[in-house]
Amino acid sequence: MEFKFLKPEKLIDKDLELVLVKTTPADDTKGYVPSYNFKMINTSTKEKMGDINLRIGYNENIKYGGHMGYGVDEKFRGNHYATRSIKLLLPFAKQHGLKEITITCDPENKASRKTCELAGGKFEEIIDLPEYNDQYKRGDRKNCIYKFVL
């Protein structure tokens, strides 16, 4: 069955707007689900502050990599842009029929763990990454799992 990308409504929270940059279809050979990639933009200056993506679906890669990945450019850190971006995307994830989403992060990444908690995620566990996983190949060994019920 063909996945249908949706057009997101305006995703704005005060000085933060998420702007859709691209969509990426699923790649079954790599185990990738369809995804949306957004830029975090300052509504006043139009300056890019970071990135966030939303992956739609459930599979083994989602178990280890999560439904969202984000990064805030260094000079904009400390303003909760990642937390606010997650909150903006949760209703959009729900529009795709997702009942819950997972966000993962390195157990040592205190900022990302706090981001997940502030966004409403519930800490589930710390898991070992399997050796065949892309994150493991990049040097990661464990991930924290945070669940968000939609």
What layout of secondary structure does this protein have?
Elements: E1 11-13, E2 16-24, E3 35-42, E4 48-55, H1 60-65, E5 68-72, H2 81-95, E6 100-105, H3 110-118, E7 122-128, H4 134-137, E8 142-149
Antiparallel strand pairs: 1-2, 2-3, 3-4, 4-5, 6-8, 7-8
What does this structure look like?
The protein has 150 residues and is α+β, with helices and mostly antiparallel strands. The protein has helices spanning 60-65, 81-95, 110-118, 134-137; strands at 11-13, 16-24, 35-42, 48-55, 68-72, 100-105, 122-128, 142-149. The strands form two sheets. The chain has a five-stranded antiparallel sheet, covered by helices on one side. The longest helix is centred in the middle third of the chain and has 15 residues, at 81-95. It starts with 10 loop residues before the first strand and ends with a strand.
In a nutshell, what does this entry contain?
With 150 residues, the chain is of the alpha+beta class.
Give short descriptive properties of this protein.
150 residues; single chain; alpha+beta
Measured as a percent range, the helix fraction is 10-25%
Largest sheet: 5 strands, antiparallel
Strand order of the largest sheet: 1-2-3-4-5
Low-confidence stretches: none
Count of discrete alpha- or pi-helical segments spanning 4 or more residues: 4
Secondary-structure-derived class = alpha+beta
Order of helices and strands: EEEEHEHEHEHE
Radius of gyration: 15 Å
First-to-last CA distance: 24 Å
- Estimated share of beta-strand residues: 35-45%
Query: Average pLDDT value?
Result: 96
DSSP summary, beta strand count: 8
Task: Please state the overall shape, judged from the principal axes of the Cα atoms.
Answer: globular
